[in-house]
Amino acid sequence: MDNLHEQASVERVTMSAKEAAAYLGISYWLILEMAKRHEIPYIACGSRKLFRKEALDKWMEEQEKKTLEKPKEYIRKIY
């Protein structure tokens, strides 16, 4: 009985593709396509793809930084 209670109290550290898509506010199909193209961090577990919240948060921060850098790159190309 104690073993069953311990299993129920295990804290998950990963999200399914559907949960990660909802967390990011994108479609399930888009997150799978992004994972397939290695554009977003994921863990392969057989045919499933799992996502860690911390990795997704870090990825989002990196994406924000890239958008701030693009205008500088664009200006350099013009001149």
Write up what this structure looks like.
63% of the residues lie in helices and 8% in strands. The chain has 79 residues and is mostly helical. The chain has a two-stranded antiparallel sheet with strand order 1-2.
Order of strands, main sheet, comes to 1-2
Subunit organisation of the chains: single chain
State the order of secondary-structure elements, H for helix, E for strand: HHHEEH
Number of strands: 2
Strand content: 5-15%
Distance between the termini: 71 Å
Overall average pLDDT: 87
Largest sheet: 2 strands, antiparallel
Task: Please state the CA-atom Rg, rounded to the nearest Å.
Answer: 18 Å
Structural class: mainly alpha
Q: State the helical fraction.
A: 55-70%
Number of helices: 4
pLDDT < 50 runs, ≥5 residues: none
What would you call the shape? Answer: elongated
